[in-house]
Write a structure and sequence with these properties.
Chain A is an alpha/beta fold and 224 residues long. The first copy, chain A, contains seven helices and ten strands. In chain A, a hairpin with a 2-residue loop joins strand 4 and strand 5. The structure holds adenosine-5'-triphosphate (ATP) (2 copies) and magnesium ion (2 copies).
Amino acid sequence: LIEFENVTRTFIMGDNRVDALKGVSFRIDDGELCAVIGPSGSGKSTIMNIVGLLDRHTSGKYYLEGESVKARGEDELARLRNHFIGFVFQSFFLLPRLTALQNVCLPILYRGESQSEYLDRAEELLSKVGMGTHMQHRPHELSGGQQQRVAIARALMGKPSLLLADEPTGALDSKTSQEVMDLFKSLNSDDGVTVMIITHDPRIADQCPRVIKVLDGNIESDNG
Amino acid sequence: LIEFENVTRTFIMGDNRVDALKGVSFRIDDGELCAVIGPSGSGKSTIMNIVGLLDRHTSGKYYLEGESVKARGEDELARLRNHFIGFVFQSFFLLPRLTALQNVCLPILYRGESQSEYLDRAEELLSKVGMGTHMQHRPHELSGGQQQRVAIARALMGKPSLLLADEPTGALDSKTSQEVMDLFKSLNSDDGVTVMIITHDPRIADQCPRVIKVLDGNIESDNG
Ligand SMILES: Nc1ncnc2c1ncn2[C@@H]1O[C@H](COP(=O)(O)OP(=O)(O)OP(=O)(O)O)[C@@H](O)[C@H]1O
Ligand SMILES: Nc1ncnc2c1ncn2[C@@H]1O[C@H](COP(=O)(O)OP(=O)(O)OP(=O)(O)O)[C@@H](O)[C@H]1O
Ligand SMILES: [Mg+2]
Ligand SMILES: [Mg+2]
């Protein structure tokens, strides 16, 4: 499904240069449940942003479903991003003027589902992450962990086949973290969703059969 | 130093009402190192925002240094906030157009220190949290954990006597989390800074002699 071949990513700011990824290679198959771990600043989010088509690599190859991403057009990448990938961002990126419910519905509004159809699904997802009583709150009226859970529900709204979660339990207590992990595991085992989770929490990483360890822009270890 | 007496905080949004704090009482003495733990949405940040003079309680009493906060004027509260309290926010609130170094210097620019004085201290604090090589980056050019560490350095810039940290290690790996915790502990033991830390990480809470547990807007337990 996902194949990185010597992928690099360099950021240039004036005469400053950061080699965030220095030649990263790995393969993730359909239906895998994979944790990405490593120190702060080691390159995990950069990897996930490239996988999720939010960022372009500097050199190397990225094959998604067997086809090189560089070869594809902007329209097709946008279609893949919107229909196929669900992304939980490290800093949530909820729209401040919309309620939790509206934020969750946003990604699929253009798809042509009936309002009652998608409203039902949005409410169900919000309840699944324990946000059933706070659907009309706006982000600034929610706690940090509540915002994180709205971001998770939003990522699942489009029924993605690839779920990318950047530290999805960072703001959650252990009970709520496990509820989120149980939700991800059931999507993986019951619906075959490929799941990639960046995490600093060893208890989350321990529940993933596949673990990729990143260090200073390189893959330090990979049990795959 | 800090005394809450039956403090409540109610949020009203249209005809919706949230009783975030339902009657919270506790006392924190000068020089204590205190962890605040509890489930997501239980009221921890609300407590800290009231302690840090960023929010007003709805009813009850809040005494800071023996004097009721309600009795004090806006100017005096602003002075206390700026000179006496350091706040690490759960969502960082770094200014996007400023570099890490500029963000750290911001709180004390009006104090009348010489530029070389405060620049030295800012660079030293950034190095202490492992951000020495990234001082000229802007927030969007930093990883999540790097942004969190800039927010920590900024909170310490004004040499506060009361440090309030809302989940300061949420985005950090375990090694960096411990470095931050060691920094807080030395401020507490060497400089007598009163430290209050909201955390979901039991390894952080375990290093605090005082632990206050919050549940659904109430104090569930307090070993103080
Ligand atoms: N401005 C607001 N308007 C309405 N409700 C609010 C507001 N701020 C907080 N709340 C509600 O008050 C409750 C407590 O929120 P608080 O941010 O204190 O939780 P918390 O313990 O810090 O949670 P977390 O661990 O997720 O950060 C939550 O139910 C939240 O939805
Ligand atoms: N837009 C950018 N411009 C410049 N440098 C960047 C940019 N984005 C990331 N970096 C740098 O690239 C490196 C990797 O960042 P990345 O966000 O991938 O780390 P991370 O492993 O996700 O860390 P964390 O656990 O703290 O979230 C860091 O040194 C960071 O400062
Ligand atoms: Mg990251
Ligand atoms: Mg909070």
